[in-house]
Write a structure and sequence with these properties.
Immunoglobulin-like, alpha/beta, globular, six-stranded antiparallel sheet, 22 strands, 411 residues, TIM Barrel, 11 helices, eight-stranded parallel sheet
Length: 411
């Protein structure tokens, strides 16, 4: 009798163990995606909930015609409000009036243009726009996205009562992995739960702040929450650079370039600093009607090359003189990017002695900048001209709310 009970106990133990193994999830993101910061376009900043399939197709066409695709922009991302209802089995469907052809047909069109399609959902019961969220439907939604041919998921954090952020995002990461299609996971919980401490293996990028606001230096107070101007978002990146790198990026939110509130100089400063931060470059303007100045800013390949540098090191702030900041970013092949950012309302004259500005990036790259030991050619990335070498001090003027962005090329 004892042998019988021992046999039953052993069988039960093995059976439970085997059953348990079947339900072990892989809570890690798809590997080998977003080796450099993602580049693309998102509908929210300009259009909010006003999205439909014709507009998305037109944006893809404009991305190609404008030269943005050839400059490195890949993703066309539909943000909130594309959703229709769930069917009797819980599977989500797009709004039939806005997306009558379905998302699969839209994805096929986007792919035919040499681009990739992104979509949006939320870890809560409803999205921020009041559409069906993914809570409780994570695996169904991930399977649906994979079947549609989705390449990128922005996953928001509204209506998440009692949820644990790390656990919720791990669940979606596991769902995407189980669905079997490589999809970039963009964690959008606004930095409230310090995702940089836990998300490196969960998502490919994570928001470091609340939403960006279309101004250079201001705060928009909505009562229960705030949105932030470009400079306020920049300041919130303090202390985060050590967490970023290939495949896992700090995300200071999407670009406001071309949306009308910023001057051309402010647009240049915005784009330059996002490049220096190794931030995702996700445009948020109407690509169909942007003027030539906006197009030239968004497609400046010299600045984009700084953002897409394979080292993946986020810039460090070398000097902060109130409204005037100097940033250095280590690049491949011993090069450096340098940004002289004028946040003030008056032009700034400066004289910068390269040889007396030796320092070592102890925190991340372990690289030393020493213009006494090596000479660098200086390339002005916005004016596309040479400024000599670091053998002599640099004298320059940066206009109000503008930037001088350089690449130091090791000779």
């Amino acid at each position: 009798m004892k042998k019988f009970f021992l046999s039953i106990l052993l069988y039960s133990s093995l059976h439970v163990s085997a059953q348990g193994d079947n339900y072990v999830q892989d809570y890690t993101k798809y590997p080998e995606l977003a080796a450099t910061p993602p580049m693309g376009w998102n509908s929210w900043n300009k259009f909010a909930c006003s999205v439909d399939e014709n507009m998305i197709k037109e944006m893809a066409d404009a991305m190609v015609a404008s030269g943005m695709r050839d400059a490195g922009y890949v993703y066309i991302n539909i943000d909130d409000c594309w959703h229709g209802q769930r069917d009797e089995n819980g599977f989500i469907h797009p709004d039939p009036d806005r997306f009558p052809s379905g998302i699969k047909a839209l994805a096929d069109y986007i792919h035919s243009r040499g681009l990739k399609l992104g979509i949006y959902s939320d870890a809560g019961s409803q999205t921020c726009g009041g559409r069906p969220g993914s809570r409780g439907y994570e695996f169904q939604d991930a399977l649906t996205y994979a079947r549609w041919g989705i390449d990128y998921l922005k996953y928001d954090w509204c209506n998440t009562e009692s949820l644990n952020a790390e656990g919720a995002y791990k669940t979606m990461a596991a769902a995407l992995k189980k669905a079997g299609r490589p999809i970039v996971l963009s964690i959008c919980e606004w930095g409230d739960n310090k995702p940089w401490l836990w998300a490196e293996n969960v998502g490919h990028l994570w928001r470091t702040s609340g939403d960006i606001y279309n101004c250079f230096d201001c705060i928009e107070d909505h009562g229960t929450w705030k949105s932030w101007g470009v400079m306020q978002i920049l300041d919130k990146q303090e202390g985060l650079r050590k967490y970023a790198g290939p495949g896992h990026w700090n995300d200071p939110d999407m670009l406001e370039i071309g949306n009308g509130a910023l001057t051309p100089g402010e647009d240049r400063a915005h784009f330059s600093m996002w490049a220096m931060l190794a931030a995702p470059l996700i445009a948020g303007n109407d690509l169909r009607s942007m003027n030539d100045e906006t197009r030239k800013i968004l497609t400046n390949r010299r600045v984009i090359a700084v953002n897409q540098d394979k080292l993946g090191v986020q810039a460090l702030k070398y000097k902060d003189d109130g409204d005037f900041e100097i940033w250095f970013k280590p690049l491949e092949n011993g090069d450096w990017a340098v940004a002289f950012l004028n946040r003030g309302k008056a032009a700034r004259n400066f004289n910068f002695d390269w040889k007396s500005s030796t320092f070592t990036d102890e925190e991340v790259s372990r690289r030393t900048f020493d213009a006494g030991a090596a000479t660098y050619e200086i390339a002005d990335l916005w004016n596309n001209k040479s400024l000599g070498t670091t053998s002599r001090a640099l004298k320059a003027i940066v206009p109000a709310r503008d930037i001088l962005m350089l690449r130091l090329i090791k000779k």
